[in-house]
Please model this.
Amino acid sequence: MTEMATGFHRETATIYQFPVGGRAGVSKFRTNGLSDLEREAREPHVDFGSWYHDEAIRDEESDRKPHS
Model:
C-alpha cells in the first residue's frame, strides 16, 4: 500500500511595499537636481522620423517623374 504525503509546504505570495508618494516617489520619475538636458532626456517623446518611410516617399516621387 502506498502512503500519500499529506503535509506539504507551499510558497506564499511576496508582498512588496508601494513607493511612498506613488509614481512621484520612484527615483526614475524625480527630476530634482537634474540639468535641463537630463530632464529633457527623461521626458517621454514621440519620434516620427523613419528612414524607410522617407525612402518610400522618395521612390514614389521619383516614379511620378518621367524617366529620360
Summary: The chain is about 30% helix and 0% strand.
